[in-house]
Inverse folding.
């Protein structure tokens, strides 16, 4: 069993790395493919709305526990180390001010859910 203190430390590291990715994705020293991937990861992580809502048992939190850490880890490997070190320091300094929200990403996710709901309604109406 993993100690609670270790889990808290890993969660704090994830927050710092995620915010560092957020800061770094605008930097011209970061390759374009890393910027695109980072924008997707950050948009999903900072979105106030999840692709799989948290009220769905198990799956609602599983996406946060798996997708975000994997996305951050993959993005960190794409960012040059000197750039990453710079933005990790800035992230540590800035994290005390609260978690940023990405309303554009939230809008995209809401749109996806609405389109899926419309598709379900259309399929049900055609079946009747």
């Amino acid at each position: 069993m993993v100690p609670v203190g270790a889990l808290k430390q890993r969660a704090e590291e994830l927050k710092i790395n995620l915010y560092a990715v957020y800061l770094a994705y605008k930097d011209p020293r970061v390759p374009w493919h890393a910027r695109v991937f980072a924008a997707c990861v950050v948009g999903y992580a900072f979105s106030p709305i999840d692709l799989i809502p948290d009220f769905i048992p198990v799956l609602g939190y599983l996406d946060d526990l798996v997708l975000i850490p994997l996305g951050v880890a993959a993005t960190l490997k794409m960012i040059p180390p000197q750039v990453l070190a710079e933005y990790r320091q800035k992230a540590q300094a800035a994290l005390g001010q609260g978690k940023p929200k990405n309303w554009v990403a939230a809008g995209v996710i809401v749109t996806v859910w609405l389109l899926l709901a419309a598709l379900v309604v259309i399929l049900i109406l055609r079946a009747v």
